[in-house]
Write a structure and sequence with these properties.
The protein is about 50% helix and about 10% strand. With about 425 residues, it is an alpha/beta fold.
Length: about 425
Amino acid sequence: MLFRSEDDRDLVRAFGVQSPLLETAQNDSPIDLEEIARRIESSLDEPRNSVFAIRGPSGSGKTYVVRRLQLLLPERDDLLVIYVPRRDVSLRRILARIVDSLPGAAAKKTREELEQNYSQDTLLQRCEQIVLYLGQALERQEFYDSQNELQKQLLGKIASDESVARGGLGGLIRNPKFCAHLSREGGPLRKLAEFTKSDVGAGEENLNVAQFSVLDFDCSDVLEKIDDKEFVLVRTLLAADKFQKIAADLLNSRLPEALRRASGMTQSFSEILGDARRELAQSDRKLVLFFEDLALAGGQHNDLYNVIRVESADMAPVKVVFAATDGFEIPEQIENLYQGEFSVPLLSADRDVDVKFARKLYTKLMNLGRIGKDAALAQLRQGAEEVSSKCDECPFRKECHEEFQEVDGVGLYPLNDHSFSLL
């Protein structure tokens, strides 16, 4: 949950500051938070799975919309609500956020695995783990059998007495020389290792999980140093641009599994959430998932989509509310489950509006800090619309407000208007 207690919820409700972009958007577009919240609430008692999508360009205010919708969701004992904020930008934190509150044996096992896997291995060691799991996934017979002829050429051959492909891409990437190339500084594998290993996100640039590209296979100098005869064919194929693209796509297709396993998880999201939904169904409860950005699924999107698609009498319904930036592809099968898709436009508020919003937000925060949480809550519980200004008690109020300016009776000290014009 976004709010850890009823006190937190009351304070935020009383805060009363809204982004000027969202205020404008609500006046000029179909975005109506109260109406969307009502539609989400009405879906809660329906037996079908439901999806509500908030779309729009980067910076349009989608995250704000999702936060407000979670706040407006009624508190009910029959709901298990899981909220994934944008600040969770490491895979470990994303996975833990989702499974921590889930019931069921699968979720319990996963929590233990994530805790045990919180290791001190180096980035290069984590790179090797990811490559190991990628290679194993590429060599499995069921994966090999599902590919076309060009892909199979890269994947190698399966002997009649074996169930894994040999002499192909899965073995090549595990070759120490090629693995070192993939693990190079600044490459996608290094970023993926950081994404799985870190307990503290490295910033919003990691929201979109790194992917392999033709650049990772356009490396004739590296391939020439690999003299193992087993890989002669795949080395020859990788000299062609089309096979470099096929190789990158093959690795990317198995990335979710490799990242999950490198993080310590032996079960997929489909298995974990399926088990949890069966447990919830026994107590007639529903699962509600909020994602401030769908990219926060940590590369496990297909598993999440599978969870949304599956409906069964022995499983609790799942309701999903997410924001996704324009251009982020959603499968048509998931779009068919939409009970609402809402667009938040990117509106160009002028500089003066931005500064006014920043001043108001700052003074609200400063005043709340000066008043203190307990005193603020006491005022709200006694029926106050807003928390009173601490400045009213200050003997220097008049001089301070004249020198530093004020907003709604709350001084900007220690900043002033000029400070906000520089933000």
